[in-house]
Amino acid sequence: MDIFQEATNAEETLDPPDWADVGALSHRILDDAIAYLEDVRNRPVWRAMPAEVRAFFGASLPRSPAPAADVYDDVARNVMPYPMGNIHPRFWSWYMGSSNFTGALGDFLAAIQGSNLGGGNHAAALMDSQVVNWMKEMVGFPASASGTLVSGGSMANIIGLTVARNVKAGVDVRERGVGAMPKPLRYYASDQVHSCHRKAVEALGLGNQALRRIQTDAGLRIDIAALKAAIAEDREAGFRPACVIGTAGTVNAGAVDDLRALASVAAEEDLWFHVDGCIGALIAIAPKNRSLVAGIEQADSIALDPHKWLHAPFEAGCALVRDASQHRNTFAVTPEYLESTPRGLASGEWLHDYGLQTSRGFRALKIWMALKEHGVEKFGRLIDQNIAQARHLNRLIEAEPALELMAPTTINIVSFRHRLDGASEEKLKAFNTEIMLRLQEEGIAALSDTTVQGRHCLRVAIANHRTRRDDLDLLVAEMLRLGREIEAAIPV
Ligand SMILES: *Cc1c(COP(=O)(O)O)cnc(C)c1O
């Protein structure tokens, strides 16, 4: 008996000794979280971290315990006040969503319920498949298509491009590798294609040169005649044209390739048609603008990003593949320790057979809860709202002689800059960069910058359900103020 007693005392758990204490702390965290979001507009969009906060993250590995309340206090003091800022109404850098409270509750509950979405016969797995089915419906894919939730758009694109490679390889590439392919494959995309595609073709063993960047027209859309010419040239030179990547919403300027035209080129030339819809695939649910992405439903595969225009808390991406068997044949492996059983927990399909991960988080719940709460139509209206806001900013810029548009505004991305009379491109870049940095440092707004067709510009990407038009009015006013201040301080 003594031995058993001793063993029991020696066993530890991560559970708290007293659940009531945990309750009090959890309620405090929840109250703080609600206040945090309620007040977000009144805080700076971004602020630099003081030295003591930076130093806090150099602390060594904790060896002894600390009360959970103290742990939370550390987080409240050093982490919560210094966010990236993308939940703020005036965050328009790069391209990301602004999260939502119900989605955050979903992430919390997913962690509490704790399931691994590698597969298995349980409710979270059914919900994962249901959310994939909803995504298919949103973009007009058939019910027979397949899909998988992944970390984000980059992974979703890798999934699509990998299926394309395996289908077009001309050899059992899973077994024999890219070295055994009778002809090297070629992929095509516009010169505005997102950098993740480069990483994808490199990781797939095809090499960066296998991805041909095709020139774009004045609207920054892929030039279809140039695409056809490149395909013909490659065939002639002994390559196998395998895949065309259309972008529905480029990251630089929000251009939308002519997806219908790309679908017919792909059909004529026997190419896989992949759509990078990380930004724009979900325009398919926006009643006023959905015609912009017409043709997306003809793709063989689509990458989309619920953590962008569905505002799911990071991370949530989704890959969809029209032919479910091609998708499964690319990734399915059944090791002896993951065989299905006729009944019980391991019955049914394994979700890890549709991608590269084995263990998978319960990403579906945060998407599911927000979609149930608001309904898909509201998300569609919010997309239309952001596009209308971008057009509003576009008009403000056109009306303001000190500002200049740098690319056409198609969706929710506006590329522009402050003018500086007689200044060189180099000087303009330095001047506009300074405006951008001061906007960030003064906590007013977060913009990013890019280079479009060789010219530096500032960039406002409005994928934000908290932005209002007066935020954009304020941006223009503050840019003009900063422009005057900087111009006065640094003579041209
Ligand atoms: C954001 C984005 C990606 C990458 O998606 P992540 O979710 O950041 O991995 C790919 N393509 C385009 C067009 C994007 O805007």
Summed up:
Helices cover 42% and strands 12% of the residues. The chain has 492 residues and is of the alpha/beta class. It is globular.
Task: Catalogue the unreliable spans.
Answer: none
Might you state the CATH topology name of the largest domain? Aspartate Aminotransferase, domain 2
Total discrete domains: 3
Give helix % range: 40-55%
Largest sheet: spatial strand order: 1-7-6-5-4-2-3
Major β-sheet profile: 7 strands, mixed
CATH C-level category of the largest domain = Alpha Beta
Reading the helices and strands in chain order gives HHHHHHEHHEHEHEHEEEHHHEEHEEH
Label the structural class. Answer: alpha/beta
Report the sheet-strand fraction: 5-15%
Q: Quaternary state, please? A: single chain
Terminal CA distance: 88 Å
Label the overall shape.
globular
CATH architecture classification name of the largest domain: 3-Layer(aba) Sandwich
Write a structural description:
- The structure is a single chain.
- This protein has 492 residues and is α/β, with parallel strands linked by helices.
- It folds into three domains: 14-43 and 47-82, dopa decarboxylase, N-terminal domain; 105-374, 3-Layer(aba) Sandwich (Aspartate Aminotransferase, domain 2), CATH 3.40.640; 377-488, Aspartate Aminotransferase, domain 1.
- 42% of the residues lie in helices and 12% in strands.
- It has 16 helices and eleven strands.
- It has helices spanning 2-10, 19-38, 51-56, 68-78, 101-113, 123-139, 153-168, 173-176, 196-203, 224-236, 259-269, 324-331, 364-374, 376-399, 425-441, 469-489; strands at 146-150, 185-190, 211-214, 240-247, 272-277, 301-304, 317-321, 403-405, 413-418, 448-452, 455-461.
- The strands form two sheets. The chain has a seven-stranded mixed sheet, sandwiched between helices. The protein has a four-stranded antiparallel sheet with strand order 8-9-11-10.
- A hairpin with a 7-residue loop joins β8 (403-405) and β9.
- α15 crosses α16 (469-489).
- It is globular and about 65 Å long.
- The termini are far apart.
- The mean pLDDT is 96.
- Pyridoxal-5'-phosphate binds at residues 95, 152-154, 157, 194, 196, 247, 251, 276, 278-279, 305, 317.
